[in-house]
Every structure is written in structure tokens, then in C-alpha cells.
Design brief:
Length: about 160
């Protein structure tokens, strides 16, 4: 589980930053998240949300489980928060062409459009550890072999 204090079915969003997010920036983002979290509501109920940094390139937002799902306004508010972070800290968290792999215990970020070349040169294989930004639930695995990812099918079928 990504967040130990949230229900396994809690909603999560994993964002990839091509640039490392230093400790000072992480602290500032965490402070802004605390301010955002105070007013975050779904269906009029407070959202028990959490923010977590994994290594220096991954940011995960979690929202505790709502049996009827989160309302669209709550999801939109979370995206607006990430957009604000992007602008304030000059990050690229909403770029869904960012893909991340683990290499030598560090996160390496590439652009999806370069994936074919990375596979051909041997930098990425079926067994390369992939950071799964297709996660939607707290119980989902962040790391998996690239060959098991939704992106691998066109390359290894």
C-alpha cells in the first residue's frame, strides 16, 4: 500500500516530475497541500487526503475511500492544486508523456515518445522496473516489471 493510513480502495494519483524535487521544494509543496487539504471536500464531506513523495521524482496524492466515489468537483480541485504546484515550482507533473523507471535505486524519467528507441538500445526491457502512473487505488503497486505494464503491449506482443 502506498499510504498506510488510507483504505486500500482509496483513490490515488501518481505524478512524475522529469526534474528532481529537492527537499526545500517538497516541504513547500507539503505546506501548500496542507492548506489545500483543509478545504478539500467531496459531496460536502471533508476528504481525508495525503501527499507523499517517492524518491525525488514521484509525487502521490491520496484521497480516502468514498463508497459512492469522489465527486467530480473534488477530483477537479485536486488537479487544480497540481496545476498550481506546476506553475509555482516550474514542474511538469501533468505531462502524461513522462514515464519513469528505476535504475540503480534512482528514478529515471523519459518521454514516452522515446520509448521505442530506449527499448532498441537496451535501456528498457520487459524486466526494467517501471513506475506505474496508471495506478488509481492505494493498494496498487507502484513498481512493476515494464513487461507487465499497460505500455508494454505494443512493444513486446
Amino acid at each position: 500500500m502506498i499510504f498506510q493510513n488510507l483504505h486500500p480502495q482509496s483513490r490515488i494519483w501518481l505524478y512524475i516530475s522529469p526534474e528532481k524535487i529537492d527537499n526545500n521544494t517538497q516541504n513547500n509543496i507539503s505546506s501548500l497541500f496542507n492548506d489545500f487539504h483543509e478545504d478539500w471536500k467531496s459531496h460536502g464531506q471533508p476528504v481525508n487526503g495525503q501527499l507523499k513523495f517517492i524518491k525525488e521524482n514521484l509525487l502521490v496524492v491520496g484521497a480516502d475511500y468514498f463508497p459512492d466515489g469522489m465527486c467530480g468537483r473534488a477530483v477537479d480541485a485536486q488537479v487544480r492544486f497540481i496545476n498550481k504546484i506546476n506553475e509555482e515550482f516550474n514542474l511538469d507533473l501533468l505531462n502524461r508523456t513522462n514515464i519513469a523507471f528505476v535504475k540503480d535505486n534512482s528514478i529515471v524519467v523519459h518521454n514516452y515518445n522515446n520509448l521505442d528507441a530506449l527499448i532498441k538500445e537496451g535501456s528498457v526491457s520487459k524486466s526494467t522496473v517501471y513506475c506505474n502512473n496508471f495506478n488509481t487505488k492505494n493498494s496498487d503497486e507502484i513498481y512493476l516489471p515494464f513487461g507487465e505494464s499497460p505500455l508494454a503491449t505494443p512493444f513486446f506482443s
